[in-house]
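Lecture 7 notes: from sequence to structure.

We start with a single chain of 293 residues. Read the sequence below before looking at the structure.
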Amino acid sequence: MKSGWQKILIFMLLLWQVLLLAGCDYYVNEQPAQQVPESFRNQDSRGRYDSIGKLGTYSISIPAGVIDGWARYMGAPGDFADPKIKAKYQRPPKTYDLPIESFGFKYRITDGDVYTSFRQTEEDYRHDNETLIPYGKPFPWAGVIIYGEYDAAVPLNFNFTVQDDFRISKEVTNIEYIQQPQLLYGLTVYKANNGIDPETGETWKSDTLTSDRMIHKDQAGNIKTYIDCQFTQHINSCHHMFYNDDWHIKVWISYSRTYLPRWQEMEGRIMQILDSWRVTREGKLLGKQIGKA
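Now the structure, written as tokens:
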């Protein structure tokens, strides 16, 4: 005859085994029925993996160390306001078909190169920061953000944006943007109240709400480039946006006004950079990647 303590001990052991088995079953049942194989990803000389996805209409492989921050993909958890939905959300595997919403990088205007960590350009960027910016000298680096455009109903132009910006300026601040008679570097220029402060009758002393606006249209008359620039600061800056129909993307660039004459070259160079990152759907590079370490 087993004692009462022996019976209790045997019962506890059996119960523990049942719970353990139940826990294992639960764990197995929670796993995906089928794991999606990870896509092939290119690497740099340090073994770092590229960031991959589909930007607009093309699959790309962005060299490791290039992205300023991280790439944001369509349908990221941050897109869900409901925390319950966000908690249950499972990220799709990163493939060459996963749409990229946006990412940023640094581009050197003077030669079309790209900032990459653990590459000479990292040292160059640091050196320029230390030797140029403190002394008010033109900084040859531009900040670039690329946005994938996936809504076919949204036009790839700034027609409404420009019209609305000018309307708001007039209605809210009573500042009217007037087209200038002469082109500037091939751009149509608009100045706030013709560049004159109506309160003083003199040239604007501040460009907080009165930056110069510039546009460029395609042959169909659609505004494809929209730039605004400061004109009274020690180091004036420009914010430059353009659309590319082939890629179905919008590009935002920020740089010193010193380099405004090279606006068309900048657009072309940035598209060359993106073209160098194109790959097949299997991840095969179509050319030599600009910025690869």
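The two ends are 76 Å apart (CA to CA). Keep this in mind for problem set 3.
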